[in-house]
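Quick note —
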Amino acid sequence: MNTRAWIVFLDASGVSPLSQIRRTYSPRGRTPLLRHRLNWKRASMAGALGYHSTDPDRGARLCFHLKPGSYDTAGLIEVLEQVKVFYSGERVVLVWDGLSAHWSRAMRAWVAEQTGSPWNDYPPALPS
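Predicted structure written out below.
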């Protein structure tokens, strides 16, 4: 198959302003006790990195989306809408992980509405 398309890798991750490592003091021989309310805010970011399959001179493309809270199906559809605008008029092969929101009914319905958007399920780990 000789397809001139962008290969786009999409992933999302959550971040929190709460540091992972803290310093504390305790007397020698006593284990320090760390207390935290755990009511911090959370933000999420999705990033799409694209490479053209046949024309490396076109360079890589990076786009990202920031959102308070966590991504769900509706949030990921919003990200895909922006990626669609970013790559308008281009062929795109989207590669992403097996997050349940990627395979939900609403996501499959959205993909089915898109013209020229084939949906191929590949196994989680391709044999080498």
